[in-house]
Structure formats: C-alpha cells, structure tokens
Fold:
Amino acid sequence: MRKHIWEWHRESAKSVFADIFVPIHMLVSGELTGVILASENADKAKNLIKDVEAQLRNNQRLINDFGSFGITGSWLSGFFQTKNSIGFWAFGLGQNPAGVRNGFNRPNLGIVDDADDKDKAKNQKLTQSRVDWIKGEFMGCLAKDNRYFIYLNNRVHREGITARLVGDIEENDPKDTSFAHVKAYLTENPITHEAIFPDGGTEIEILNDLIEKGAVPAWKEYYSLEDCAAKIVDYGLRNALRQMYHHHIEEGNIFHDDNMPWSEPFLLSSYDALVTYCDPAFGESGKGCFKCIVLMGKKGHLYDVLHVWLKQKGNWINAHRYIAENLEKLHDIPSAHKEGVKVKAAVMHWVEANSLQKTELRKSYQLENLGFEVPWYPRYDDDTKPEKIGRIENLEPTANHKHLRFNINLKTNKDMIKLREQFKGFPSGFIDGPDTVQGAKDKLDKMARKSTFKTRVGKYLKTNSRW
Structure:
C-alpha cells in the first residue's frame, strides 16, 4: 500500500487535489476500482464527494475526452457509481465500512479529509480510537492490490489525529516512516522549506517581518507575501499559527484573561519598587527561544507589567539599555514623561545569568558599550533557581487574586499580546516571557522587604549597601 499524509496549510487546495484530481486521474487511467472517503462526520464526507460527482456529471471537457461516465446514485445518499461499477462511498469517522464493494470491485483509493478537530482532540481517548479506526476498519477495506491511502489535514492540535498518524507529537519523536509525509507552511525558508512565521503586529509590520526573515510563500504561484500577511491578520496570530503553520498553542488552565486584568498604571513615583529584568535566552538562539525584557512595578500586593520587549531576534542589550536610560520616553506609561527622569535613579536593572554565562555576558556588554561614551551594565541575577515550569507556576496565586496586572495602554502592542499568549499557553509552547515576569517579581519582592528601602521611589533614600 502506498500511504500519504498531506499536512498542508489551510486553503492550500488539499481537498481539490486529493478528492477530485487524484480519483479522476486514476479513473480515466483505468487504475481506479473504487473510492472510500471519510471525514469528521457523515455530512462532511458526503459534501466532499459531491465535488467529484459534479465533475464527472458536468465537466464537458472530461466528457468530450473520455465519454459519459454514466453516474447513478447520489452524494446525498453517500454513494454513487459510474457505468463501469466504480463506486464512491462517504463515511463519517467511526462508521462501519466493512464489506464495501461494488460487484467484484473493492475500492483501492482511501481518502481521509478534514477529520481532525481541535476541541475533540482534547479527548485523547477519542482521538486514539479514531486513529485506530483509520488504520484498522477504514484502511482494511481497501483492495489487496494497487491500493492507495491519502490523509490530509493541517495540524489543528498538538496531539490530534494528524500528529498521531505522523508520529511526531513531541519535537524529536520519530515519524512513522510507512507514510510519505509532505508538510507545507504558508510561508517558508526557500532553501530548507522550514516554517517562517511572523511575531505579530499590523499587516505592514507582519509583511516587513516576513521580508526581514527571508520568508517566501510556499505556494508562490497563488499567494504573494502581501496576501500571506493579510491572511495572518484576518485569522489572528494564534489561529494563523494553528491553521497555516501547524503550530498549536494549547490553552493552559492556569493563566487566562480573567486572572490577568488590564489596568491603568499608577504614577511611577507612587510604586513601592520598580525593576527592569532581562532574560536574554543566552546561548539558546538555536532553539528559537524568545529574549525578553520587562519593566515592572510593585505597589502593595499589586504587580504591574508596565513595558515589555519580547522577540526571537534583536539586540536585547541595547533594548534593555534604552528602557533603563529613557524611562521618560516610554509613551505608554502616562506619567513617564513627567517624572521618568527623577524616578530613573531608583530603578534596579537585572539580567538573568548563571555562573557559567557571566563571562560570556560580560564580553557581550563590553562589545556593545564600545559604541557609547558611557558604559552601561545591569546587575547579574545568578541566584540558584528552581526548575522553570515550577517557578512560573508560583505566579498562580498572584494571578488568581488578580494582583498581576498588565498596562492597558499596551493592549494592541504585539510584544504585550505575545507575552499574554505565552501565559495563556503555559506550560506548552514558549514560556520565556512568563519566566521573565517571574524573575522581575522575585526582585521586586526582595526590594520591598529591604529595611533600607524607602516605600516610594519618587522620594527614595540613597544607600551604598548592596544585596
């Protein structure tokens, strides 16, 4: 049996190729003995075989070249046949296809189209039973000789039917080599054909991001890069990643919109403490990690994310320095332009660095400082920390009391949106942003506990003590 999995992005004409072109080509070539087509339910399957029936009944170019196909039956009943007894059947997942044949002809082409569903995939027992049905009852109905199987679906869930058939549920899992697997993304690297997707933003920002990253449309004969950017905006980044790039960001059950409220920032001078914290994902660039910088303030029990820089690429040293030295220019904090200058001296700046990374980090800062008259260095956070997942989970009580708040003036900012998406997807996917927020909160708590710290940074006391 020749088995194929077409994991193509949404609107890449998967169904046209598999459900119409392939069966008709096999039919007119004399290779086809019958088709069984399955989809998520019977109605969807009937609707899919409707298109091939319409072509065989009404396509005059086909009829002129190959004669009338003599169609009897109807897609409405889930079955039709040609005058040569070549049958076409439609089934919903789980229906019993045993004994499917037309006269002596058993179908030799099996197609499973649009069968995966992101909500149903959350039930892994149901998902596994559907995979077993496809591999067992469905494929078992195909003829013994010259048989073909095609499964086509974009990856709508990390552990859905598509992922289980391919085999690579986790990144390094081995694939099922019995399938010929073709994976196509909306935009890709033209050499490696790996996915290149944007970080988000407006249509213009997404287009510029794709151009900067060297992306091209996988189907360049049909889509321009401008078309791709527009489509991503139409879908929204989260849905676009799932539908166009087979990258499913699973909704977590810890952080969500209800426990991550938007809020108007306080006056900068009224915060008990302010910090910037940077997680440079140093030495992890090959893993596609995000580099993150946050400016956070603490007032009482409240922790406000006032500003965020979150990117996979970019000069994080200069970005961190800019935030530290130009607090008064951060226009999304209403009080910054009035009191940013007087508050700056009380803000502590940190970069995450374990003992092994310090030497390399120092070299990086020294090189960047060559372009400035006055060098700038943050403090190195080399505290021994628990495992990343665990320390982010420690933010749950703060979030559930709605004490972790986000600057409402950044509601449309793509870095802030990305940060919240990483929180919502926790523990799946990228979590560098939430980890940075946790690091900043830890420093804010220590600052607030220091007896020498004045409780309002607008009227801080200078101290030479270090901790």
